[in-house]
Amino acid sequence: MNVWILTTIMGFGTAVYILWMFYRDMPNVLEERDKRKKKKWENSDDRKHQHQKRENIKDLEIKKTALEEDLKIEKENIENKNKTAIIKIEEECKLKLEEQQKLFEEDKLKLEQLKKPKNKINKSELQKINLEKGKRYEAFVAEYFRSKDYSTVWEHGKEKGKLDANIDIFIMNKEKAYFVQCKFYEKSKVDHNMIKGTRTDIREYMKTNNEFTKLIANRKKKILYVIPRECLTTGAWRYIKDNDDILEYIVIPMKNK
């Protein structure tokens, strides 16, 4: 009997001790459990965040690639348009030059026919043909300069007529402005008095024409003689060289292509 009671008391005491130990460690157990749950939740949220970040980076890379392709295509389109425009301008200039060359050859043939011994040359008609050839040459020279890097090519003589002050063509780029005088001399020569006269006429013309003053502001100004062959006299050539700050000449022949 006493043994049974003792055993019962010891069992009860053990149970109480176990319960006491359980409840004593319960807060730590619960705290540890909460920590594990919180850590698990944080890890899950961080994974979601990292996944979303990777998706965003992937989307940005796709958009970047698409934008680069669009820019490449646009650049190619612009280059193709520029090439097409340049080719078109070159073809137009070539056609105009060919047309002027053809007209020039026709005038030359007429003049040769008039100069044949069997024909009596009418002086007024010959002057008319020479004048027409001069105009053809001026148009040819204008087209020549249009095919170069000049932003302005003004056929001044064609527009002003007898009031052109010996300025057949006016050409200009960013740095220079030229007053062009064309002399289509096939046999005659250009002497220094002609050049001096042109220089004087242009100087006087400039005093009363503000349109040129505005156009040539901040540009180097020169008078340019254009001839179809080397037809300057020695005096004319020396005069141009001595005044090369304001005078210049160039040979532009009209040859058969």
As a whole number of angstroms, the C-alpha radius of gyration is: 48 Å
Note the total helix count: 6
Shape category: rod-shaped
How would you name the oligomeric state of the polypeptide chains in this document?
A: single chain
Measured by DSSP, the beta-strand proportion falls in: 5-15%
Structural class: alpha/beta
Number of strands: 5
Adjacency order of strands in the biggest sheet? 1-2-3-4-5
End-to-end separation: 143 Å
Largest sheet: 5 strands, mixed
Task: Classify the helix fraction into a percent range.
Answer: 55-70%
Structure description:
This protein is of the alpha/beta class and 257 residues long. It is built from six helices and five strands; from the N terminus they run H-H-E-H-E-E-H-H-E-H-E. It has a five-stranded mixed beta sheet, sandwiched between helices. The relative contact order is 0.06. The model has no long low-confidence stretch (mean pLDDT 82).
Which helices and strands occur, and which strands form pairs?
Layout: H1 2-114, H2 123-146, E1 152-154, H3 156-160, E2 169-172, E3 176-182, H4 192-207, H5 210-215, E4 220-227, H6 234-242, E5 247-251
Parallel strand pairs: 3-4, 4-5
Antiparallel strand pairs: 1-2, 2-3
Primary descriptors:
257 residues; five-stranded mixed β-sheet; alpha/beta
